[in-house]
């Protein structure tokens, strides 16, 4: 028996006898489950999994179990061969890395629906995408995505309903999330998260001179604390594509005040393209390593990922409003969300102020 997921024309399937992977995929992609579909995918780009007892070339530092990638261009199928001991989360990340559409791409961004329009929040890591979306969900707006959003060449955004990952910095600086997740233990948890954030920063910038020690500490302390179903916070995820009204680029720094201003679309496109490549950097490295040491057929479309992302995002944002949000470092999450909603309402009524210059 095969468990399948049809993610906007990218088909993912795994044998049911791989329960950890099947469970992880189902937790994150249940909206797309399509077990009753045909075995043949009728032109879908397909990702499937195959267990292997051979030694495979792609593995994480300190681990023996590995994976390998094989592409069959004739039937547009990528097979992820893997040893049994490979963690399901690692296979999940490979699945997301390999997802491909001709007329869509993933953007490293969070997104919500407000009054039937889509709003995208892109940013460098640890800037506040997730926090902004969580605040907007608490205000009653509808979830579209966290961390990654699928965008199409006609200017639309698609729901990518993975669980929201909550990190130490989310809990350290937003007491409401500590209360939601830890109830009576909220205060001590929040204090410990603040210590953890400061400790990590100190270790990585001052006290650990060796790069391998820094890598180990960063890997150990950068994992999410919890994963939260977005339905715990707001309404069910929006399952239909929505037209993008505004794409926001969030950036934190030593700004005098919180402001929202026009951004050059080409600058936005450059930044989201570089962010995409940065976020998947380790996986590109593994992919190119396999190409270097083996004769296995690889999905060569990955060689053109940067241009594909740039082309699709350029089409997505054609005639769209693109805005830069300059955020003073200590800005509370609620204040940022309120400012964004106020700006959206002002654009709807044609009352944008000078502080939110167009």
Describe the structure.
This protein folds into three domains: 99 residues, no CATH class; 144 residues, 3-Layer(aba) Sandwich (Rossmann fold), CATH 3.40.50; 55 residues, no CATH class. Helix content is 38%, strand content 25%. The strands form three sheets. Strands 6, 7, 8, 9, 10, 11, 14, 15 and 16 form a nine-stranded mixed beta sheet that branches. A five-stranded mixed beta sheet has the order 1-2-3-5-4, covered by helices on one side. A hairpin with a 4-residue loop joins strand 4 and strand 5. The longest helix has 22 residues.
Task: Decide which structural class fits the backbone.
Answer: alpha+beta
- The strand count comes to 16
The helix fraction, in percent, is 25-40%
The appropriate CATH architecture of the largest domain is 3-Layer(aba) Sandwich
> What is the CATH class designation of the largest domain?
Alpha Beta
Question: Quick one: biggest sheet?
Answer: 9 strands, mixed
SSE run: EEHEEEHEEEHEEEEHHHHEEEHHHEH
Residues in β-strands, percent: 15-25%
From the N-terminal CA to the C-terminal CA, the straight-line distance is: 55 Å
Which segments are poorly predicted (pLDDT under 50) over 5 or more consecutive residues? 353-358
